[in-house]
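Hi U.,

Before I forget, here's the chain from the pilot set. I'm dumping it here mostly so it's searchable later in email.
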Amino acid sequence: MAKLKWARWGLGAAATTVVAVMLGLLLAPRPVDVDVETVRIGAIADSVADQGVARVREAYIVAAPVSGRLQRVDLHVGDRVAAGSTLVARIRPASADLLDPRSRAQAQAAIAAAQAAVAAAAAEQDRFAAEARKADADLARVRTLAAKGFAARQALDAAEAQARAARAAVRSAAAQFGVRRSELAAAGSALLGPEAQDGRAVPVPSPASGYVTRVLQESERTVAMGAPLVEIADQSGLEAAIEFLTQDAVRIREGMHAELYDWGGQGSIPAIVRRVEPQGFTKVSALGVEEQRVLVLLQFEGSPVSWSRIGPGYRVWGRVFLRQEAKAVKAPLGALVRADGGWAVFRIGEGRARLTPVAVGAMTDREAEIRSGLKGGDRVIVFPSDKVVDGVRVRARAS
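Structure:
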């Protein structure tokens, strides 16, 4: 009986132990499943990026060199032109305006008056010519008499002066006759209509080689001197005007390396910062927020073939590299969390999450430079949930 009693006591103790162990396992906190990545050593760059548009650095506006009637421009956007040999436009002399009946009657009356003035000038010229002939004849007679001693020297001098005055009067009358004929021609030109225009067209050659980006005047019309006709650009001088926020633009310097991406083609296009414009401007964002921005000009580099499909006005994204580090400690951007006003990560140590403060340097869209707090090979939790706290047991989720 004693043995049976001890056996019962043993079985009860064993059952109690099993139940306690099972309850302990059921009530014990389970490890939190997390996504884990490894801290790596590699190159990283501190950069700023924003969007803008492509444009040509040098654009030429071809203007009308003279006033006149512009013939229809045969060039179209995208046409290639060569400096000096391609004619951009032709300009003929401006046509006369059509006359209404009142203006025509006034012009005809002016012509009649001019014709009468011409007739009067011709008659005046004939009168002075007759007086000059008479003065020459009188001078000849006085000279003959003076040679024979029958005329005084004073009479000879008076005859010579009279003859010179008569000849001068003839020349003056001839000049007045020419003036009246010119006035008649001017009065007659007022009656000339558009059908009387026969002037030669003035050719306007291209000042530079490139292609046409805008046709500002295409149809035939009357233009004034200096009126813009066509815009010509050289694609080899393509650049990008990127609108950076002012707080990013103050960190950019001329000569920094840059690149253009998300432009629609394969890969990125190397570029260099040509200029940071000193004047900012206000722009309203898509959310309705006023932002202060600055234009940063990025000059394309490399072979023009790589950006041959980009034209002025195309939307591009630009990235300027402020600083580049060849051997940096890099952690996934999703591992960073905010702690005590700074950055921290959950590093895995001995199966538990350890909240570790870190100093962050350059940041990209995927990685962050860790200047202190981590080393290469450390494992960190990416996108930790609210269940992950300092010291909690964690378990790497199967990928």
